[in-house]
Amino acid sequence: MAEAHKGTALITGASSGIGAIYADRLAKRGYDLILVARNRERLAALSSRITTDTRCSVEILDADLNDKAGLAAV
Description:
- The chain is α/β, with parallel strands linked by helices.
- The chain has one domain: NAD(P)-binding Rossmann-like Domain (Rossmann fold, 3-Layer(aba) Sandwich).
- The protein is built from three helices and three strands, in the order E-H-E-H-E-H.
- It has a three-stranded parallel beta sheet with strand order 1-2-3, covered by helices on one side.
- Helix 1 runs parallel beside helix 2.
- It is globular, with a radius of gyration of 12 Å.
- The model has no long low-confidence stretch (mean pLDDT 91).
């Protein structure tokens, strides 16, 4: 179960690898999350799992940060 709310963390590259690990660990420490990556389906799956496991709020944003429009969206 998550600890008391500590704020909101923005995590880029969150759909896999170290980004997904950071998302999981920060949520377990009580942070709400904004997850950013190119793959919306993976973000949605991670968001669902984290929300179920921790009850933290998770917002997802599919964006390619190598693209000016994606970067501006974030």
